[in-house]
Amino acid sequence: MKVVVIGSGFGGLTAAIRLQAKGYDVEIVERRDKPGGRAYVYEQDGFTFDGGPTIITAPWLIHDLFTLCGKHTEDYVSIVPIDPFYNVRFEDGSVFRYTGKREEVIEEIRRFNPADVRGYERFFEKTADIFTAGFNLIDRPFSKLTDMVRVLPDLIRLRSQDSVAKFVNRHIKDDRLRQVFSFHPLLVGGNPFRTTSIYALIHKLEQEWGVWFAMGGTGALVRALVKLFTDIGGTIRLNADVQEILIDDTSGGMPAARGIRLADGTEIRADIVISNGDVARTYMSLVPKQYRRKNTNTHLEKLTYSMSLFVIYFGTNRRYDNLAHHEILMGPRYEGLVEDIFTKKVLAKDFSLYLHRPTATDPSLAPDGCDAWYVLSPVPHLGSGTDWSVEAPRYRDAIFDYLEERYMPNLRQHIVTEHHIDPVHFDTTLASHLGSAFSVEPTLFQSAWWRPHNESEDIRNLYFVGAGTHPGAGLPGVMSSGAIAARQIAARTVNTP
Predict the structure, then answer these.
(1) What is the dihedral of CA 78, 79, 82, 86, to 10 degrees?
(2) pTM greater than 0.85
Protein backbone atom coordinates (compact mmCIF):
# COMPACT_ATOMS: atom_id res chain seq x y z
CA MET A 1 0.00 0.00 0.00
CA LYS A 2 1.47 3.33 -1.12
CA VAL A 3 1.71 6.29 1.28
CA VAL A 4 2.98 9.71 0.28
CA VAL A 5 4.02 12.20 2.97
CA ILE A 6 4.10 15.91 2.14
CA GLY A 7 6.97 17.47 4.11
CA SER A 8 9.91 16.07 6.06
CA GLY A 9 9.57 17.72 9.44
CA PHE A 10 9.60 15.65 12.61
CA GLY A 11 5.89 14.84 12.33
CA GLY A 12 6.23 13.61 8.76
CA LEU A 13 9.40 11.64 9.48
CA THR A 14 7.78 9.97 12.50
CA ALA A 15 4.69 8.89 10.55
CA ALA A 16 6.80 7.76 7.58
CA ILE A 17 9.18 5.65 9.70
CA ARG A 18 6.36 4.00 11.63
CA LEU A 19 4.42 3.10 8.50
CA GLN A 20 7.48 1.95 6.53
CA ALA A 21 8.39 -0.28 9.48
CA LYS A 22 4.91 -1.85 9.22
CA GLY A 23 5.48 -2.70 5.57
CA TYR A 24 3.82 0.21 3.81
CA ASP A 25 5.54 1.69 0.76
CA VAL A 26 6.25 5.24 1.93
CA GLU A 27 7.62 8.17 -0.04
CA ILE A 28 8.33 11.61 1.44
CA VAL A 29 8.24 14.66 -0.83
CA GLU A 30 10.00 17.80 0.41
CA ARG A 31 9.83 21.16 -1.35
CA ARG A 32 13.26 22.36 -0.11
CA ASP A 33 16.73 21.06 -0.97
CA LYS A 34 17.21 19.48 2.46
CA PRO A 35 14.91 17.53 4.76
CA GLY A 36 13.79 18.80 8.15
CA GLY A 37 10.95 21.26 7.60
CA ARG A 38 11.25 23.86 10.36
CA ALA A 39 14.46 22.04 11.39
CA TYR A 40 16.28 23.10 8.23
CA VAL A 41 20.06 23.55 8.57
CA TYR A 42 21.98 26.58 7.30
CA GLU A 43 25.71 26.22 6.64
CA GLN A 44 27.55 29.48 6.17
CA ASP A 45 31.22 30.47 6.31
CA GLY A 46 32.19 27.41 8.35
CA PHE A 47 29.30 27.78 10.82
CA THR A 48 26.33 25.43 11.18
CA PHE A 49 22.99 26.92 12.26
CA ASP A 50 19.87 24.96 13.18
CA GLY A 51 17.03 26.78 11.49
CA GLY A 52 14.31 25.94 13.96
CA PRO A 53 13.72 23.66 16.98
CA THR A 54 16.67 23.32 19.33
CA ILE A 55 15.10 21.97 22.55
CA ILE A 56 14.66 18.20 22.77
CA THR A 57 12.39 16.83 25.49
CA ALA A 58 10.67 13.43 25.81
CA PRO A 59 13.68 11.63 24.27
CA TRP A 60 11.91 8.25 24.46
CA LEU A 61 9.83 9.33 21.44
CA ILE A 62 13.06 9.33 19.44
CA HIS A 63 14.34 6.06 20.89
CA ASP A 64 11.00 4.36 20.18
CA LEU A 65 11.44 4.94 16.44
CA PHE A 66 14.81 3.23 16.35
CA THR A 67 13.60 0.36 18.55
CA LEU A 68 10.58 -0.13 16.28
CA CYS A 69 12.97 -0.61 13.36
CA GLY A 70 15.29 -2.95 15.26
CA LYS A 71 18.00 -0.29 15.47
CA HIS A 72 19.83 1.64 18.20
CA THR A 73 19.68 5.43 18.50
CA GLU A 74 23.36 5.68 19.39
CA ASP A 75 24.35 4.08 16.09
CA TYR A 76 22.76 7.03 14.28
CA VAL A 77 23.02 10.08 16.54
CA SER A 78 24.37 11.09 19.95
CA ILE A 79 21.85 12.82 22.21
CA VAL A 80 23.31 14.42 25.34
CA PRO A 81 21.73 16.13 28.37
CA ILE A 82 21.96 19.90 28.83
CA ASP A 83 22.80 21.53 32.18
CA PRO A 84 21.47 24.05 32.94
CA PHE A 85 18.31 23.69 30.88
CA TYR A 86 18.17 27.48 30.63
CA ASN A 87 19.53 30.58 32.25
CA VAL A 88 16.64 33.02 32.65
CA ARG A 89 18.02 36.56 32.85
CA PHE A 90 16.18 39.70 33.96
CA GLU A 91 16.66 43.41 33.43
CA ASP A 92 17.69 43.91 37.08
CA GLY A 93 20.71 41.65 36.48
CA SER A 94 19.33 38.61 38.34
CA VAL A 95 19.76 35.19 36.74
CA PHE A 96 17.68 32.09 37.46
CA ARG A 97 19.66 28.92 36.74
CA TYR A 98 16.95 26.48 35.61
CA THR A 99 18.07 22.85 35.97
CA GLY A 100 16.57 19.38 36.26
CA LYS A 101 17.49 18.91 39.90
CA ARG A 102 14.55 19.80 42.09
CA GLU A 103 16.69 20.78 45.07
CA GLU A 104 18.64 23.21 42.85
CA VAL A 105 15.42 24.73 41.52
CA ILE A 106 14.19 25.23 45.09
CA GLU A 107 17.48 26.85 46.09
CA GLU A 108 17.17 29.25 43.14
CA ILE A 109 13.62 30.11 44.22
CA ARG A 110 14.81 30.68 47.78
CA ARG A 111 17.50 33.02 46.47
CA PHE A 112 14.89 35.03 44.56
CA ASN A 113 12.08 34.96 47.14
CA PRO A 114 12.11 32.55 50.12
CA ALA A 115 8.37 33.02 50.62
CA ASP A 116 7.70 31.34 47.26
CA VAL A 117 9.29 27.98 48.13
CA ARG A 118 6.06 26.61 49.64
CA GLY A 119 4.08 27.95 46.71
CA TYR A 120 6.43 26.28 44.24
CA GLU A 121 6.06 22.95 46.06
CA ARG A 122 2.27 23.21 45.68
CA PHE A 123 2.73 24.22 42.03
CA PHE A 124 4.98 21.21 41.41
CA GLU A 125 2.46 18.82 42.96
CA LYS A 126 -0.26 20.23 40.73
CA THR A 127 1.91 19.99 37.60
CA ALA A 128 2.57 16.34 38.42
CA ASP A 129 -1.20 15.77 38.45
CA ILE A 130 -1.60 17.69 35.20
CA PHE A 131 1.26 15.71 33.66
CA THR A 132 -0.38 12.38 34.53
CA ALA A 133 -3.71 13.42 33.03
CA GLY A 134 -2.43 15.61 30.21
CA PHE A 135 0.22 13.28 28.85
CA ASN A 136 -2.43 10.62 28.43
CA LEU A 137 -4.01 12.92 25.83
CA ILE A 138 -0.87 13.55 23.79
CA ASP A 139 -0.79 10.25 21.91
CA ARG A 140 -4.48 9.58 21.33
CA PRO A 141 -6.60 10.98 18.51
CA PHE A 142 -9.57 13.29 19.05
CA SER A 143 -11.55 12.53 15.92
CA LYS A 144 -15.01 12.35 17.49
CA LEU A 145 -16.84 14.51 20.01
CA THR A 146 -17.16 11.47 22.26
CA ASP A 147 -13.34 11.38 22.48
CA MET A 148 -13.56 14.83 24.07
CA VAL A 149 -16.48 13.99 26.33
CA ARG A 150 -14.46 11.17 27.92
CA VAL A 151 -11.71 13.53 29.09
CA LEU A 152 -13.87 16.49 30.13
CA PRO A 153 -14.07 15.44 33.81
CA ASP A 154 -10.26 15.52 34.04
CA LEU A 155 -10.07 18.85 32.21
CA ILE A 156 -12.64 20.37 34.58
CA ARG A 157 -10.95 18.91 37.66
CA LEU A 158 -7.60 20.34 36.56
CA ARG A 159 -9.14 23.76 35.83
CA SER A 160 -7.83 23.66 32.30
CA GLN A 161 -9.92 26.72 31.46
CA ASP A 162 -7.33 28.74 33.38
CA SER A 163 -4.24 29.97 31.55
CA VAL A 164 -0.72 28.84 32.37
CA ALA A 165 0.04 32.30 33.79
CA LYS A 166 -3.08 32.28 35.99
CA PHE A 167 -2.19 28.81 37.26
CA VAL A 168 1.39 29.86 38.08
CA ASN A 169 0.34 33.16 39.64
CA ARG A 170 -2.02 31.31 42.00
CA HIS A 171 1.00 29.70 43.65
CA ILE A 172 3.95 32.08 43.12
CA LYS A 173 4.14 35.77 44.03
CA ASP A 174 7.53 37.05 42.86
CA ASP A 175 7.08 38.62 39.43
CA ARG A 176 10.35 37.22 38.09
CA LEU A 177 9.56 33.70 39.29
CA ARG A 178 6.13 33.96 37.71
CA GLN A 179 7.89 34.52 34.40
CA VAL A 180 10.32 31.63 34.99
CA PHE A 181 7.49 29.14 35.41
CA SER A 182 5.08 30.48 32.80
CA PHE A 183 7.18 31.29 29.71
CA HIS A 184 7.12 27.75 28.28
CA PRO A 185 3.99 28.20 26.10
CA LEU A 186 5.99 30.72 24.05
CA LEU A 187 8.26 27.84 22.99
CA VAL A 188 5.27 26.16 21.31
CA GLY A 189 3.56 29.26 19.91
CA GLY A 190 1.27 29.99 22.85
CA ASN A 191 0.40 33.09 24.82
CA PRO A 192 1.05 32.27 28.52
CA PHE A 193 -1.98 34.39 29.42
CA ARG A 194 -4.30 32.45 27.04
CA THR A 195 -2.77 28.98 26.69
CA THR A 196 -4.62 26.33 28.70
CA SER A 197 -2.99 25.42 32.00
CA ILE A 198 -2.56 21.85 30.68
CA TYR A 199 0.67 23.18 29.14
CA ALA A 200 2.07 23.64 32.65
CA LEU A 201 2.94 19.95 32.32
CA ILE A 202 6.03 21.05 30.36
CA HIS A 203 7.73 21.88 33.67
CA LYS A 204 7.12 18.38 35.01
CA LEU A 205 8.14 16.86 31.66
CA GLU A 206 11.48 18.68 31.75
CA GLN A 207 12.08 17.86 35.41
CA GLU A 208 11.27 14.19 34.84
CA TRP A 209 13.05 13.58 31.52
CA GLY A 210 15.49 16.45 31.05
CA VAL A 211 16.40 18.75 28.17
CA TRP A 212 18.64 17.22 25.50
CA PHE A 213 20.74 18.18 22.51
CA ALA A 214 21.77 16.20 19.45
CA MET A 215 25.50 16.49 18.87
CA GLY A 216 25.91 18.10 15.49
CA GLY A 217 22.73 20.11 16.11
CA THR A 218 19.06 19.31 15.61
CA GLY A 219 19.95 18.80 11.94
CA ALA A 220 21.97 15.75 13.01
CA LEU A 221 18.77 14.27 14.45
CA VAL A 222 16.96 14.97 11.17
CA ARG A 223 19.73 13.25 9.23
CA ALA A 224 19.60 10.28 11.61
CA LEU A 225 15.85 9.87 11.13
CA VAL A 226 16.15 10.22 7.34
CA LYS A 227 18.87 7.55 7.31
CA LEU A 228 16.73 5.30 9.49
CA PHE A 229 13.82 5.79 7.08
CA THR A 230 15.87 4.99 3.99
CA ASP A 231 17.68 2.11 5.71
CA ILE A 232 14.32 0.35 6.15
CA GLY A 233 13.33 0.98 2.53
CA GLY A 234 11.66 4.39 2.51
CA THR A 235 12.29 6.94 -0.24
CA ILE A 236 12.54 10.73 -0.10
CA ARG A 237 12.28 13.20 -2.99
CA LEU A 238 13.75 16.70 -2.48
CA ASN A 239 13.02 19.91 -4.43
CA ALA A 240 9.49 18.58 -4.95
CA ASP A 241 6.88 21.32 -4.49
CA VAL A 242 3.35 19.93 -4.15
CA GLN A 243 0.77 21.86 -6.16
CA GLU A 244 -2.35 19.80 -5.50
CA ILE A 245 -3.69 16.82 -3.58
CA LEU A 246 -5.45 14.58 -6.09
CA ILE A 247 -9.06 13.83 -5.13
CA ASP A 248 -11.32 11.06 -6.38
CA ASP A 249 -15.06 11.80 -6.01
CA THR A 250 -16.42 9.22 -8.42
CA SER A 251 -17.50 6.64 -5.84
CA GLY A 252 -20.52 8.63 -4.69
CA GLY A 253 -19.39 8.71 -1.07
CA MET A 254 -16.87 10.92 0.71
CA PRO A 255 -14.16 12.18 -1.68
CA ALA A 256 -10.84 10.37 -1.26
CA ALA A 257 -7.21 11.43 -1.61
CA ARG A 258 -5.50 9.46 -4.39
CA GLY A 259 -2.08 11.09 -4.53
CA ILE A 260 -0.43 14.42 -5.30
CA ARG A 261 0.58 16.55 -8.26
CA LEU A 262 3.92 18.38 -8.13
CA ALA A 263 4.56 21.83 -9.55
CA ASP A 264 6.43 20.29 -12.50
CA GLY A 265 3.33 18.26 -13.40
CA THR A 266 4.53 14.94 -12.00
CA GLU A 267 1.74 12.90 -10.42
CA ILE A 268 2.45 10.49 -7.58
CA ARG A 269 -0.46 8.13 -7.04
CA ALA A 270 -0.98 6.88 -3.49
CA ASP A 271 -3.56 5.11 -1.32
CA ILE A 272 -2.86 7.45 1.61
CA VAL A 273 -1.71 11.10 1.72
CA ILE A 274 -0.22 12.60 4.89
CA SER A 275 0.42 16.33 5.08
CA ASN A 276 3.19 17.57 7.34
CA GLY A 277 2.62 21.02 5.91
CA ASP A 278 0.73 23.82 7.60
CA VAL A 279 -2.88 22.67 8.08
CA ALA A 280 -4.53 25.86 6.87
CA ARG A 281 -2.23 26.24 3.87
CA THR A 282 -2.66 22.57 2.94
CA TYR A 283 -6.44 22.82 2.88
CA MET A 284 -6.67 26.25 1.27
CA SER A 285 -3.94 25.78 -1.34
CA LEU A 286 -3.87 22.05 -2.11
CA VAL A 287 -7.48 20.87 -1.75
CA PRO A 288 -10.15 22.38 -4.05
CA LYS A 289 -12.97 24.21 -2.25
CA GLN A 290 -15.73 21.91 -3.46
CA TYR A 291 -14.31 19.05 -1.39
CA ARG A 292 -14.12 20.98 1.88
CA ARG A 293 -17.47 21.14 3.68
CA LYS A 294 -15.94 21.37 7.17
CA ASN A 295 -12.52 22.90 6.57
CA THR A 296 -13.67 25.83 4.46
CA ASN A 297 -11.56 28.94 4.00
CA THR A 298 -13.99 30.78 6.29
CA HIS A 299 -13.59 28.20 9.04
CA LEU A 300 -9.81 28.16 8.79
CA GLU A 301 -9.54 31.96 8.73
CA LYS A 302 -11.60 32.18 11.94
CA LEU A 303 -9.02 30.18 13.86
CA THR A 304 -6.40 32.15 15.76
CA TYR A 305 -2.79 31.52 14.81
CA SER A 306 0.45 31.64 16.75
CA MET A 307 2.85 34.51 16.71
CA SER A 308 5.71 34.57 14.24
CA LEU A 309 9.43 34.92 14.87
CA PHE A 310 12.32 37.15 13.94
CA VAL A 311 15.51 35.07 14.09
CA ILE A 312 19.09 36.18 13.47
CA TYR A 313 21.70 33.47 12.85
CA PHE A 314 25.21 34.75 13.43
CA GLY A 315 28.74 33.60 14.06
CA THR A 316 31.39 35.30 16.20
CA ASN A 317 35.15 35.00 15.91
CA ARG A 318 35.40 34.73 19.68
CA ARG A 319 33.62 32.67 22.34
CA TYR A 320 31.32 34.11 25.00
CA ASP A 321 31.72 31.53 27.73
CA ASN A 322 29.71 33.63 30.18
CA LEU A 323 26.59 32.45 28.32
CA ALA A 324 25.01 28.99 28.47
CA HIS A 325 23.60 26.80 25.71
CA HIS A 326 20.05 28.16 26.23
CA GLU A 327 19.51 31.71 27.48
CA ILE A 328 16.10 33.31 28.03
CA LEU A 329 16.52 37.09 28.15
CA MET A 330 13.46 38.70 29.70
CA GLY A 331 12.81 42.27 28.67
CA PRO A 332 11.35 45.12 30.74
CA ARG A 333 7.72 44.01 30.14
CA TYR A 334 6.09 40.58 30.19
CA GLU A 335 2.29 40.60 30.00
CA GLY A 336 2.23 43.90 28.08
CA LEU A 337 4.70 42.63 25.49
CA VAL A 338 2.77 39.37 25.06
CA GLU A 339 -0.42 41.37 24.56
CA ASP A 340 1.28 43.48 21.89
CA ILE A 341 2.39 40.34 20.05
CA PHE A 342 -0.76 38.21 20.26
CA THR A 343 -3.69 40.59 20.77
CA LYS A 344 -2.80 44.07 19.53
CA LYS A 345 -0.48 42.61 16.86
CA VAL A 346 1.93 45.52 16.94
CA LEU A 347 5.70 45.35 16.69
CA ALA A 348 6.90 46.73 20.03
CA LYS A 349 10.13 48.62 20.53
CA ASP A 350 11.14 46.28 23.39
CA PHE A 351 11.45 42.50 23.30
CA SER A 352 12.27 39.33 25.17
CA LEU A 353 14.74 36.99 23.48
CA TYR A 354 15.80 33.37 23.30
CA LEU A 355 19.56 33.18 22.72
CA HIS A 356 20.84 29.84 21.49
CA ARG A 357 24.55 28.99 21.76
CA PRO A 358 24.96 25.36 20.66
CA THR A 359 28.76 25.67 20.63
CA ALA A 360 28.61 25.73 24.43
CA THR A 361 27.94 21.98 24.07
CA ASP A 362 29.31 21.17 20.61
CA PRO A 363 32.21 23.39 19.46
CA SER A 364 32.33 21.58 16.10
CA LEU A 365 29.42 23.73 14.88
CA ALA A 366 31.81 26.68 14.43
CA PRO A 367 35.47 27.19 13.47
CA ASP A 368 38.03 26.87 16.28
CA GLY A 369 37.69 29.62 18.89
CA CYS A 370 34.33 30.77 17.49
CA ASP A 371 30.69 30.55 18.54
CA ALA A 372 27.55 29.83 16.48
CA TRP A 373 24.36 31.55 17.62
CA TYR A 374 20.81 32.33 16.92
CA VAL A 375 18.75 34.94 18.69
CA LEU A 376 14.98 34.65 18.43
CA SER A 377 12.35 37.29 19.15
CA PRO A 378 8.61 36.52 19.14
CA VAL A 379 6.80 39.01 16.88
CA PRO A 380 3.24 39.34 15.53
CA HIS A 381 2.29 37.28 12.50
CA LEU A 382 1.55 38.96 9.18
CA GLY A 383 -1.94 39.88 10.32
CA SER A 384 -0.18 42.86 11.93
CA GLY A 385 0.52 44.45 8.54
CA THR A 386 4.17 45.05 9.51
CA ASP A 387 6.36 45.85 6.51
CA TRP A 388 9.37 43.66 7.22
CA SER A 389 11.35 45.02 4.29
CA VAL A 390 11.47 48.25 6.27
CA GLU A 391 11.44 46.96 9.84
CA ALA A 392 13.94 44.08 9.61
CA PRO A 393 17.13 46.20 9.53
CA ARG A 394 15.93 48.41 12.39
CA TYR A 395 14.83 45.43 14.46
CA ARG A 396 18.11 43.62 13.83
CA ASP A 397 20.09 46.66 14.99
CA ALA A 398 17.97 47.05 18.13
CA ILE A 399 18.56 43.41 19.08
CA PHE A 400 22.31 43.64 18.56
CA ASP A 401 22.40 46.92 20.52
CA TYR A 402 20.65 45.18 23.41
CA LEU A 403 22.90 42.12 23.37
CA GLU A 404 26.06 44.20 23.12
CA GLU A 405 25.05 46.54 25.93
CA ARG A 406 23.94 43.89 28.40
CA TYR A 407 25.45 40.48 27.64
CA MET A 408 27.98 40.35 24.80
CA PRO A 409 30.65 43.09 24.94
CA ASN A 410 31.89 44.41 21.57
CA LEU A 411 29.55 42.00 19.78
CA ARG A 412 29.41 43.81 16.46
CA GLN A 413 33.15 43.83 15.93
CA HIS A 414 33.22 40.04 16.43
CA ILE A 415 30.36 39.08 14.06
CA VAL A 416 31.84 37.38 11.00
CA THR A 417 28.68 35.97 9.38
CA GLU A 418 24.94 36.44 9.74
CA HIS A 419 21.52 36.17 8.13
CA HIS A 420 17.96 36.45 9.41
CA ILE A 421 14.44 35.15 8.85
CA ASP A 422 11.17 36.95 9.61
CA PRO A 423 7.40 36.37 9.21
CA VAL A 424 7.68 36.69 5.42
CA HIS A 425 10.00 33.67 5.40
CA PHE A 426 7.44 31.65 7.36
CA ASP A 427 4.75 32.69 4.88
CA THR A 428 6.66 32.07 1.66
CA THR A 429 9.49 29.59 2.19
CA LEU A 430 7.77 27.58 4.92
CA ALA A 431 4.23 28.02 3.52
CA SER A 432 2.65 28.83 6.89
CA HIS A 433 -0.66 30.71 6.98
CA LEU A 434 -0.14 34.36 8.02
CA GLY A 435 3.54 33.59 8.51
CA SER A 436 2.77 32.08 11.91
CA ALA A 437 5.68 30.09 13.29
CA PHE A 438 3.65 27.38 15.07
CA SER A 439 0.38 27.26 13.09
CA VAL A 440 -2.84 27.14 15.16
CA GLU A 441 -2.49 28.83 18.55
CA PRO A 442 -2.77 26.38 21.51
CA THR A 443 -5.76 27.84 23.36
CA LEU A 444 -8.23 25.59 25.20
CA PHE A 445 -10.83 25.75 22.43
CA GLN A 446 -8.17 25.05 19.82
CA SER A 447 -6.87 21.95 21.57
CA ALA A 448 -7.73 18.23 21.40
CA TRP A 449 -11.10 17.76 19.59
CA TRP A 450 -11.31 21.49 18.84
CA ARG A 451 -7.95 21.44 17.08
CA PRO A 452 -7.70 20.51 13.37
CA HIS A 453 -7.97 16.73 13.31
CA ASN A 454 -5.24 14.27 12.39
CA GLU A 455 -7.71 12.51 10.08
CA SER A 456 -9.52 14.80 7.66
CA GLU A 457 -13.28 15.05 8.14
CA ASP A 458 -13.67 16.07 4.49
CA ILE A 459 -11.37 13.75 2.54
CA ARG A 460 -10.91 10.03 3.08
CA ASN A 461 -7.30 8.83 3.19
CA LEU A 462 -5.99 12.33 4.02
CA TYR A 463 -4.15 12.78 7.33
CA PHE A 464 -2.35 15.62 9.08
CA VAL A 465 0.74 15.70 11.28
CA GLY A 466 2.78 18.59 12.65
CA ALA A 467 2.27 21.68 14.77
CA GLY A 468 -1.18 22.70 13.50
CA THR A 469 -2.97 19.46 14.30
CA HIS A 470 -3.43 17.53 17.56
CA PRO A 471 -1.61 17.54 19.95
CA GLY A 472 0.35 20.66 18.91
CA ALA A 473 3.80 22.17 18.46
CA GLY A 474 7.14 21.24 20.01
CA LEU A 475 9.05 18.02 19.36
CA PRO A 476 6.89 15.85 21.68
CA GLY A 477 3.74 17.25 20.08
CA VAL A 478 4.68 16.87 16.43
CA MET A 479 6.26 13.45 16.90
CA SER A 480 3.15 12.29 18.76
CA SER A 481 1.00 13.56 15.89
CA GLY A 482 3.03 11.35 13.55
CA ALA A 483 2.47 8.36 15.82
CA ILE A 484 -1.27 9.08 16.02
CA ALA A 485 -1.65 9.30 12.25
CA ALA A 486 0.35 6.12 11.70
CA ARG A 487 -1.85 4.20 14.15
CA GLN A 488 -5.03 5.57 12.59
CA ILE A 489 -3.87 4.52 9.13
CA ALA A 490 -2.86 1.05 10.29
CA ALA A 491 -6.23 0.61 12.00
CA ARG A 492 -8.22 1.71 8.95
CA THR A 493 -6.32 -0.01 6.16
CA VAL A 494 -5.29 -3.50 5.28
CA ASN A 495 -1.67 -3.34 4.18
CA THR A 496 -0.72 -5.66 1.36
CA PRO A 497 2.94 -4.97 0.60
Answers:
(1) 120
(2) yes
